[in-house]
Design goal:
244 residues; alpha+beta; 10-stranded mixed sheet
Length: 244
């Protein structure tokens, strides 16, 4: 029997889970071999229909919200569209990032050959803005790439827009790709973390979302802790953990 999904908030209108890394939100043509999806697992766990509102990349963990009715789904979708939702992510990246900054770098929509085959190919790059803050750094006595030591940073990222793979692509654009990112990162550093720290996931997690409750309009703060793999790594580096 599958381990139940970790529910971090639930009422009669919506439910939020801490999605594990490696789990798709719903069925996708991109991963046709996959048989487990957050949508179906949560539906079976609650015994009722759930409505997906937004998505997290398969390798990203953290806060994922579902509505429990079509009306609430429409209201929550408007929140995301109107940028009412504040999102916070934590990531481990290569190198020492600047202390803080804003990445204002438009992104061309990346289309999948199968699931996006009907989409326009000539769409212009879309506005994409991410604000980041460096939380901690470490220099390790290992020659991973060109230098005798290797440097890494823990960063907090607050995306203002919600483009596909935005944080991953923005941090790569900044010159500090996320560790464990097979698509936008660097394999030699990914393998180093696998072999040295037994860390086999993308080191990116959505740790918090803040939004008005769709019915009461009261502020709703949804927080998700890091999984055992990321927690152990941050402890080993003597880095802070996200507040809960």
């Amino acid at each position: 029997m599958a381990e139940p999904l970790a529910i971090i908030y639930r009422d009669q209108y919506l439910v939020a889970i801490n999605k594990p890394s490696g789990l798709l939100v719903h069925r996708s043509m991109i991963d046709r071999h996959e048989t487990r999806f957050a949508l179906q697992l949560l539906r079976d766990q609650l015994g009722q229909h759930v409505y997906p509102i937004h998505r997290l990349d398969k390798p990203t963990s953290g806060v994922l919200i579902f509505a429990l009715s079509a009306d609430i789904a429409r209201q929550l979708s408007r929140y995301f569209h109107d940028k009412v939702v504040s999102k916070t992510y934590w990531a481990v990246v290569r190198g020492y990032t600047p202390e803080a900054g804003t990445i204002d770098h438009p992104l061309k929509e990346k289309l999948d050959k199968i699931s996006d085959k009907k989409s326009r190919l000539d769409k212009p790059a879309q506005e994409a803005i991410s604000h980041y803050q460096r939380l901690a750094t470490i220099e390790l006595p290992y020659c991973v790439d060109r230098y005798p030591q290797s440097r890494y940073s823990l960063v907090q990222v607050k995306p203002e827009t919600g483009r596909k793979h935005q944080i991953r692509r923005h941090l790569k654009h900044l010159g500090h790709p996320i560790i464990g990112d097979a698509k936008h990162g660097k394999g030699i550093h990914n393998r180093f973390f696998q072999q040295q720290f037994n860390c086999h996931r993308l080191l990116l997690a959505c740790t918090e979302m803040c939004l008005p409750h769709p019915v009461s309009q009261q502020p709703l703060r949804l927080q998700a802790g890091l999984d055992a793999s990321m927690t152990a790594l941050l402890q080993r580096f003597n880095w802070p953990q996200p507040a809960q």
